[in-house]
Amino acid sequence: MDRAQGGKAFGLLKSQQEEKLNGINEAFLTDPKYEGEEDLASKLEMFKKKYMEFDLNDKGEIDIMGLKRMLEKLGLAKTHLELKKMMAEVVGSSSIDTISYNDFLNMMLGKRNAILKLILMFEGMAKEDEQKEVGPPRRKTFSDLP
User: Fold this and answer.
1) Closest Cα partner for 47 from 32, 28, 31?
2) Could you read off the pLDDT of 9-44 as tens digits, one per residue?
3) Which of 18, 43, 61, 85 could form an SS bridge with 98, CB 3.0 to 4.6 Å?
4) Three-state secondary structure string covering 70-89
5) Which residues of 94-119 are buried (b: 16+ CB within 10 A; e: fewer)?
6) What is the pLDDT of residue 5?
7) What is the C-alpha end-to-end distance of the chain, expressed in Å?
8) Of 44, 60, 47, nearest to 124 (Cα)?
9) How far is Cα 40 from Cα 44, in angstroms, rounded to an integer?
10) If DSSP codes are grouped into helix, strand and coil, which group holds residue 132?
């Protein structure tokens, strides 16, 4: 599907993709391997949102550009070689150049600490620690300037 079309077609594509990912989440929820996982449903929902945000090719996979954008957004720009190494670590092969949602969930819920998993978990913890100010921003003074 052409990205330039946007609008309804893009919204339909994203909702179809979300349905597909919901189906995969259901399979993980009923998998005995993960029955001891604490708060699994909310973790899967959070992982789904993160995955959809960086699925740039809209094919249900994160390609190398999606991974690059994800890490740049976190302030962790990586070289092409580092990205390929991260992908190989997640999917278990250097010949596969996309991360499927199943691979992504296996990485996030698995016992292995892949570099990408550690980065994403660190980002989640950093967001929890941030204090969100409510109301209008406070007035700036000259002493606030760098």
Assistant:
1) 28
2) 767 777 777 888 888 888 888 888 877 778 888 888
3) 61
4) HHHHCCCCCCHHHHHHHHHH
5) eeeebbbbebbbbbbbeeeebbbbeb
6) 53
7) 47
8) 47
9) 6
10) coil
Tokens matching residue 38: 């604490």
Of 17-26, 41-50, 56-65, 130-139, give the lowest mean pLDDT range: 130-139
In 3-state terms, what secondary structure has residue 61? strand
Give me the residue label for tokens 């990485």.
Answer: 107
Paired sense of beta strands 98-100 and 61-63, if any: antiparallel
Provide the token pair at 82: 């580092």
Residue with the bigger pLDDT between 132 and 82: it is 82
What one-character DSSP code corresponds to residue 5?
Answer: G
What number of other Cβ atoms are within 10 A of residue 133's Cβ?
8
Question: Which neighbouring-strand residues pair with 99?
Answer: 62
143 contacts: CB under 8 Å, gap ≥ 6: none
Place of tokens 């954008």: 69
Q: What gap in Å lies between CA 75 and CA 82, rounded to an integer?
A: 15
The pLDDT tens digits of the residues spanning 68-115 come to 887 888 777 888 888 888 888 888 777 777 888 888 888 888 776 666
